[in-house]
Each structure stands twice: as structure tokens, then as C-alpha cells.
Amino acid sequence: MVRPTLLVGALASLALSLFTRATLAAHHPASEPISPKVMIITGFTPEREIWYPYNLTNDYPMPGFIPTYQNVSCTASDEICVMTMGQAEIGNGIAMTLLWSSPMFNLTETYFLIAGIGGVNPRYSTIGGVALARYVVQVEMGMAFAGSDLPANFSDLYFFPSFVTSPNQYPSLAGTEVYGLNGALRDKVASLVAEKNISFADNPTAQAYRSKYTYAPARAAPTVDKCDVASAEVYWSGEVYARNVEYYVDLISNGTAKYCNTNEDDTGTMAGLLRGAMLGKLDFSRIVIAKGNSDFDRPPPGLSAYQNLMEVAQNGFEICLQNLFAVGSTFINDLVANWHSTYKHGVKTQNYVGDVCGYLGGTPDFGPGHC
């Protein structure tokens, strides 16, 4: 999630950035299927622009993509590509389906780097940091009461799983609630960043805002954290809503997921990728989620939820983008350099990879084990 006050400045540069891209890249018809080593998935212009140092000279038009971002842009060798989907779960699921169903691409060996920004849970990480996720949880498939309608036994948990009579019951599932990713691949990316001893960007305003929190992770300097993603179209701020999300993530994942990053699109992206994997178009174990933390999802002591969301400058936006590129490029550079020795045949993992229903085979180590 991106704070509303930050979006204004980010979107103001849209026309200029698109004009600049037009002068750098050319449309190229693909004579044979393109087989990228990595597809970088972004949501909007600032997330896309950080990858321009890779000199994305080849633009491939994608019919059906939203008009603002109609091309998949790749390096001259087509090893590294970037796509931009917009910010919405439904649109992202459609965009991913358009991608893997296109005869222009062969994605069977492609790694997917989902690289974006979002809010951050101060109990587990901080602004400017980067989250590497193993679990993606959808915080939308549920039921709700509001205000005085909330039953006494629900203890302020106004959002709860579908078709239950108390908030601690596990729900029936639609299948999009939880996705598990390749833990070994996630750990490898974290190890690469540690080995490179990356210097993370920071600024005095972000440091000052962190100091207002009592949680140690919130007060710490930016780094990489191995924690999970909560995805919803609702943009929340405040302790009440955030605690409700923590409860739901814990319940729906059987205690395995701990969300630190919030965003509006990842479960849609996961749903689209899962369908492609079910049809053999891509490998679901080749997904990396790296999310920059732009703003806290609840205020520090002394400030209101409204002030945290609408008024206070946290200054995490620019530094989290810089740090996202530092982390993502470390992975990409290693992938290209060591493709045949390390990545071509996949990174093996011991954990279950797939959705909560087990549609790709195997038994999920979260949820009920079946739908």
C-alpha cells in the first residue's frame, strides 16, 4: 500500500517517464518465443522506473494490458524483463494470465521477481526495509460486523473468516486465501544480500519517525527481513484494523505466516501465476516476493491512525525503492551470472509450494490440508 500523499508526486512524473522510455526502447515483434531468465513484476511507475539501469531496450506489446503499461520491456538479450500491471488484485490476475497464455513468451524456466512496495507492520520490520516473503495471505475472503453490531464474543474482531459462528473457527475455503512459496529460494536471496554486505539507504526523517515506536524491529535500521505479505484492496491504518489482520493471518495459516508487509495486489498475482502453473506454463517454485516498506500500518504512541495515514511524513517511500532495487538486483545479477550452475534446473526446497487447496499436488503445511 502506498500512502495517498505519496501517490500524488509519484504519478506526476508519469507523462515524463513514459516519454523518456519511448526514446530509449523500440517495439520488437518476437520471431520466436521469448524465454526470460527473470520477469520483474511491478505495479506502477515508481516501481518500474528503478529497473531502468538494466537498459530495457526491447519493448514487446501485450494486447489486453492496461493502456498505461502495454509493453513487457526487456534487455537486448531478453534475459531480464519488466512488466507493470497496475494496482488491483483483479487486474493483476488478468495481466498474469495474459502473460503466460501469450505465444510470445516461454516462461517454463523463468523466475518471477514480484518487486513492489507497501505498508509495514512495526512488530516485525521498519520503513525502508525489504520483506522477503514465504507466505502470501489474502485478507478479504471473510465476513464482518461494524460498530455496535459486533457480538460480544468477537472481542473487537469485526472481520473474521467466512461462515463461522465464532472468530476462532477455521473457515471453509475459496482457494485464494494462502499461497506458500519456495523457502529455499527466499533464503538464498537473503543470503546473497548478506554476502554482498549491502548498505541500505536511509534518511533522518525516517529515523526520527522510527524512534517514536516501542517495537524493536520498528526502531531498527532498514535491512532485509524474512516475513510475510498480507494482501487486500482495503488500505488500512491503525492498531484496531492491524491487530484484526494479524489475527486473521495467524488463523488462516495455522500460525505459520507472520505478516510484515501490506499491499493491494499480490494475491491477484499469485492466483494468475497458480493457474499458469496448473497448465504447465510456468514453475510456481520460481517465485520471489521482495517488498519495500514505505509506511507503517499503525501509528506510534501519541499519534492517531488518521495522522499516521494522512498527515505525517514518514519518508520511507524513496529509500524503500532504493533498497528494493539493491536487494532485487543482487538476486538478478547472481541469477544471470550463475544460471547454468545454480538456477536453470530450479532451486530445490523441502517445504510445500502452492496454494492452500493443494491444486499443484502435495499437502499444504498450512490450512486444513485440502479444500
UniProtKB/TrEMBL annotation:
Q: Which GO terms describe its cellular component?
A: endoplasmic reticulum
Alphabetically list the UniProt keywords. Signal, Transport
Tell me which positions the record assigns to the signal sequence.
1-25
GO BP, sorted A to Z: transmembrane transport
Q: Does the keyword Nucleus apply?
A: no
One Pfam family it belongs to: NUP
Does the record bear Transport in its keywords?
yes
Q: Which family, according to the similarity comment?
A: Belongs to the NUP family.
What is the protein's known function?
A: Nucleoside permease that transports adenosine and guanosine.
- Name under which the protein is recorded: Purine nucleoside permease
The protein's organism comes out as Xylona heveae (strain CBS 132557 / TC161)
Q: What taxonomic lineage is listed for the species of origin?
A: Eukaryota, Fungi, Dikarya, Ascomycota, Pezizomycotina
